[in-house]
C-alpha cells in the first residue's frame, strides 16, 4: 500500500500531464509491484486529510515494535483531481504504463509541489520539491536531513534530478550530494507506438466501445497480425562518483504490450550491468482475470550467484449482484457488457490510473455517473464504485524467503497485512508480521 | 583563497542554513499551502489531519 503523500504526488503528475514511467529509472516498475512489494512490518496507523484541493496533510503512528510517528504536509500549485481514490490507485499493482507521448503542457505554467515529512521523536525530515521547468522537463530535489550532524547510520542525503521527456525518448540527469554520485540515463521507445497514435487520432473517440461477438480463433485486434502487440524500450545509464572512486554502466531492454489492445498485459525486461556482472530477466503477465504473475532471474557473471524470484498478485473482486461484469486487465477497470446495445460501459471511475490517462478515459468516466452506485460502508473519501475488494500478493525466492501481503478495506479503513518468513532459519522462520491501518478523511472538500 | 577566518564563517553559515532549512521547511510548506488555498481554510484544518 502506498502512503497518501505518494498518492497525491501521483495525482500531481497526472494533473500536470507528466508520465514518470517514461524514465529509465522506472523501467521495471510493472513487475516491481509483484516482486518488490514491501509489506508492513509493524503495527501502524495513519490518518490523512485533504482540506483544500492543493493541500494535504497526514499523520502516522507506529506502535510496535517501537513507538514513533510522523507528520507530513504537501502543497501543490495546481488543483489536484477531486475524484475519490480507488483501492487500485492506493496500492502498487501490476499494470501496463501509459504509452509514451510528448507532454503538451501549457508552457506558461511553472507548477510546483512541496512536501515535508517530519519523523518523531528522531526529528528526521524527508522533503521533496518538484518544479515543472518546461512542458517537456522538470526538476526534482529530494532530501533526508537530520537535526544532529549526520552519522554513518543516519546519513543526510540530497538528490537533485532533472528529467526530460520528448515522447519517443526520455532522459534523466541525477546528482547525489552525499556521495557525489552523478548519473545520466536515457530511454528510447520504439515499435507500435506511432501506429497506435494514428489509430487513436483517426478513430473517433466515443464514450462506449462496440463489442462484437468474435470467434475464438479470430484476431482480437482485427489488423491481420497475431501474437502480442507491444512496443520496445531500450535504455542505458552511466554513473560515476569521484568521491567514492567508482563508476558503472547499465543497459536495459523492455517489451510491453500496448495498454488498449486485446493482448494480455505482458512485460518482459532484461537488464545488464557489465561492470558489476549483474544480469537479470523479468517476465510478468496477467494470466487470468485479476491474476497476475511475475518471475525474475538474477545472475552474476563473475560470482555465478543466482536468485530466482516468483510472485503473484490477485485482485479479489467484490461480490456483485451482476455477474456479467468483469475486470479488464488492459484498462484496469471493471467493465460491464450491454448485450442489447453491444457496448461496454465503465463502472469504475476512480480506477483510472497513471497508466491510462488519455482522452478516451476522460470521456468514458463521464458515463459512470449513470451507473448504479454500489452501497458501501467505506470511508467517504474512497470511491464507492471500487470493484476490487482487496489485493493479495505473494512472493518467494530461491533463498527460501516468503513474503505475503493483503491490502484491502475493512469498514472505513484501508488495511494492509504483511508477513515475512525465512524458511532457511529454523529457529525464527517468521521474521515479521505487520498491520497497517490507513484512514482517508475527506476534509472539507466537496465530493 | 579564503582565509581561515572566512572559511570558518562560511562553514558556520552553512550549518546555520542547514538547521534553518531543516526546521523551517515544514512551516514553509504549510505557508505555501495556505497562500495558494482559495477559499482559505481554518488554520486548524490545515495543520491537523484529525480536524
From TrEMBL, chain A:
Name of this chain's protein: Mitochondrial distribution and morphology protein 10
A Pfam family per the record: MDM10
PANTHER family named among the record's database cross-references: MITOCHONDRIAL DISTRIBUTION AND MORPHOLOGY PROTEIN 10
Keyword Transmembrane: yes
Description of how the protein assembles with itself and partners: Component of the ER-mitochondria encounter structure (ERMES) or MDM complex, composed of MMM1, MDM10, MDM12 and MDM34. Associates with the mitochondrial outer membrane sorting assembly machinery SAM(core) complex.
Gene Ontology terms: biological process: establishment of mitochondrion localization; mitochondrial outer membrane translocase complex assembly; mitochondrion-endoplasmic reticulum membrane tethering; phospholipid transport; protein insertion into mitochondrial outer membrane
Keywords assigned by UniProt, alphabetized: Membrane, Mitochondrion, Mitochondrion outer membrane, Transmembrane, Transmembrane beta strand
Annotated coiled-coil segments of the chain: none
Positions of region (Disordered): 203-228
Comment, domains: Lacks alpha-helical transmembrane segments, suggesting that it resides in the membrane via beta-sheet conformations similar to those predicted for other outer membrane proteins and porin.
Protein topology in the membrane: Multi-pass membrane protein
GO cellular component: ERMES complex; SAM complex
Family note: Belongs to the MDM10 family.
Automatic annotation (TrEMBL), chain B:
A biological process from GO: protein import into mitochondrial matrix
Record's subcellular location: Mitochondrion outer membrane
Entry membrane topology: Single-pass membrane protein
Domain of life of the native organism: Eukaryota
Keyword line: Membrane, Mitochondrion, Mitochondrion outer membrane, Protein transport, Transmembrane, Transmembrane helix, Transport
A GO-annotated cellular component: mitochondrial outer membrane translocase complex
Kinase recorded as keyword: no
Primary location group: mitochondrion
Transmembrane domains' residue ranges: 20-37
Family statement: Belongs to the Tom7 family.
Protein name per its UniProtKB record: Tom7-domain-containing protein
